[in-house]
Amino acid sequence: MAFQRVDKSANSSLQASSENSYLASRPFAPLAKQVIKMSTENQIIQQEAKGIEVTRPTNLLEILFSQPHKRQSQTIQAKLRIGQPGDKYEPEADKTAYQVMQRIHLPFVSRDMSQPKNRVIQRMTDGNSETEHPKKRTREQNTSDDEHESKRQQLIYPTEVTIKGEKIRVENSEEHKQAREIIERIENDYGIKVNSTIGLESVISHYAQAPQIIKDRVETEYWDVKRLISVEQGLSHYKDILGNNRNSSSRAGIPQEVLSFSSLNYGIDKNLPDTKLDSNTWGEYFDNNSNISLYKPFQTDTHDFPDNLEKQMEATVIHEIAHGLCEYKLQDYWKALAYWLDENTKSEDEDAEYPVTGYGETNASEDLSEAVMYYFTKPDELEAFAPERYELVKKMVKEWKGTN
Ligand SMILES: [Zn+2]
């Protein structure tokens, strides 16, 4: 069973906009910018998916239409519900709502401006750094080895290196050293391997029904130091129940639920013969392999932390880890919350405390992961918006050290 943190879309987006004059009254000026951003993403998909039918522009548009942004629009609904006008959370809700509004209207603009759209795509073809400096396919790439310090000094940076079998893009010798140290610490302190092959195998086996041509497009992806830092930072919040510390925690004797981290280009949308590459998912936890795979959108999308990609990446790592390390608390969690009848069924009790984000409304597992993510990154907001959830997570974390 896999748990995804997605930035997928929902048909409810349009409904949300028309019901809310707050959204509808915003100006349309920055739309062109948004079109450029979306085109870039689709161009990457286009490059990644060569050989399958998404390469033609008409089908790229179909992808746009078929993948509106569910997670974002849901989050907006949550924020609008809890944020009172003028309170300290309003600016953030306002900003996010504005971004959503742009996305909501994007398909119509694209439809109506076929000529300008082509110009935008062309412009991105000229200016996209990925196009100018294509990333070499990981399966074909011969990378430098990292066996000896002397070799490291001979390298011309930036370059791609291999550390313990993982391919990593480094800017300079300092980053090269840093990357090796992080990978060693993650392994030694937390008992977790950085190993992208495990993630690749996890995706292929989990989405067994996907056609081979789709499976063949899933590939390991280079790490960079920023992403390795986010993994280590995310793991650090769980240090009491990882590696050797786990033996002296409340989780002693129970196998550690996260054992590896992987970097992949894309996951797969559904475990069905009729599926496609998933260009919206940031990360995914595979419980049968105790693996967390991080995908390309993880490297660029900032949803919970606008303009702070480092914090966003750390938060996403925290969310995915919670699917593994905190799953044992899931039943206690939803039973304690009036919002849930069971793991997947809402009570529809309007007086119940809502999940801290719209994405948390997906099911109790996502609710728990979002609450844990907030607990470690924005505890004040969690305590203010969802005090019951705050207390449940706080109690769980304290139990780890046996100090409750
Ligand atoms: Zn999730």
Describe this structure in words.
- The protein is of the alpha/beta class and 404 residues long.
- The protein has three domains: 10-132, no CATH class; 159-308, no CATH class; 326-404, no CATH class.
- The protein is built from 18 helices and 13 strands.
- It has helices at residues 12-19, 21-24, 31-48, 57-66, 70-82, 90-112, 114-127, 129-132, 149-154, 173-190, 196-206, 212-215, 225-236, 309-325, 330-336, 364-377, 379-385, 387-400, and strands at residues 2-6, 144-145, 159-163, 166-170, 193-194, 223-224, 260-263, 267-268, 277-278, 281-286, 291-294, 340-342, 345-346.
- The chain is globular.
- Residues 7-42 and 47-144 have low confidence and may be disordered.
- The chain binds zinc ion.
Features:
binds zinc ion, single chain, 404 residues, 3 domains, 13 strands, alpha/beta
List the helices and strands and how they pair.
Layout lengths: L1 E5 L5 H8 L1 H4 L6 H18 L8 H10 L3 H13 L7 H23 L1 H14 L1 H4 L11 E2 L3 H6 L4 E5 L2 E5 L2 H18 L2 E2 L1 H11 L5 H4 L7 E2 H12 L23 E4 L3 E2 L8 E2 L2 E6 L4 E4 L14 H17 L4 H7 L3 E3 L2 E2 L17 H14 L1 H7 L1 H14 L4
Parallel strand pairs: 2-3, 4-6, 5-7, 7-11
Antiparallel strand pairs: 1-10, 3-4, 8-9, 10-11, 12-13
Helix pairs in contact: 3-7, 5-6, 10-13, 13-14, 14-16, 16-17, 16-18, 17-18
The protein binds zinc ion.
Zinc ion binds next to strand 1, helix 14 and helix 16.
In short:
The chain is 50% helix and 11% strand.
Low-confidence stretches: 7-42, 47-144
What is the mean pLDDT?
74
SSE-based structural type: alpha/beta
Extended strand count: 13
The rounded Rg comes to 22 Å
